[in-house]
Backbone:
């Protein structure tokens, strides 16, 4: 066995008396034990790192496989949904309902919205607002913005559910935060009625900046009247012109009025 010469003074031709040697030998033994412990700890660390690496590789491979399987499943559901859309466009609502339901029951949000629309309109099946709400809620809970907007409206208008403005605002807010202009306008209109002009202005601005003519017209009114913002006829006219260019007749009338003032 190799012994480190630093711990064996006699190998260096240095002679110690027995009393000194008696002191050195326990130290040598302790150092040998410490070295063995270090080596074992090092080897354990290497094994642990190797195991962790293998586990990480296994998790990564499993995650990649799961994502690939999920993508294939989503692609399949999208194809089924598009068959429903094709049938819907042709006015074949019973055929559309078959495809929509197949994809809806597998959890595909666009199909759930479309199935809810069929129940709302009574196309290809009996009109049923409770089922309408059931399916659009399924889609809304997955973050489908149009369904969130429709669910908000259902709570405002008592369509298949009891009227509940708190619920309505929550669902419109979810859609508005996804830049859905319809919900932005709904929130703005609600706050306008409540005379909270700062919040109303904020949401009309968001809608208007997306090119929504209703938002542009109302933002023009806020600047014309000085609601939540300093009165600014020039800025009001700018937003009225944008809305009028999209065929908003009210915006055009306001522009005509301002031009004569």
Residues:
């Amino acid at each position: 066995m190799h012994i480190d010469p630093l711990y064996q003074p006699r190998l260096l031709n240095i002679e110690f008396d027995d009393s000194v040697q008696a002191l050195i030998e326990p130290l040598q033994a302790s150092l040998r034990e410490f070295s063995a412990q270090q080596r074992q700890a090092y080897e354990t660390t290497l094994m642990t790192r190797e195991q962790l690496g293998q586990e990480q590789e296994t998790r990564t491979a499993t995650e990649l496989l799961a994502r690939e399987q999920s993508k294939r499943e989503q692609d399949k559901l999208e194809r089924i949904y598009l068959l429903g859309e094709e049938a819907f466009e042709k006015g074949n609502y019973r055929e559309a309902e078959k495809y929509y339901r197949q994809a809806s029951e597998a959890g595909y949000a666009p199909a759930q919205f479309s199935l809810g629309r069929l129940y709302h309109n009574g196309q290809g099946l009996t009109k049923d607002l409770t089922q309408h709400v059931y399916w659009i809620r399924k889609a809304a809970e997955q973050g489908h913005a149009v369904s969130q907007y429709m669910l908000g409206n259902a709570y405002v208008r008592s369509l298949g559910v009891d009227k509940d403005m708190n619920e309505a605002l929550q669902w419109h807010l979810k859609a508005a935060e996804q830049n859905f202009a319809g919900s932005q306008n709904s929130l703005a209109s609600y706050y306008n009625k409540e005379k909270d002009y700062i919040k109303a202005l904020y949401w009309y601005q968001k809608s208007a900046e997306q090119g929504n003519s209703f938002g542009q017209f109302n933002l023009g009114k806020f600047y014309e009247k000085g609601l939540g913002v300093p009165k600014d006829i020039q800025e009001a006219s700018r937003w009225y012109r944008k809305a009028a260019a999209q065929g908003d007749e009210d915006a055009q009338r306001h522009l005509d009025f301002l031009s004569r003032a």
Q: What stands out?
A: The two ends are 107 Å apart (CA to CA). Confidence is low (pLDDT under 50) at residues 1-13.
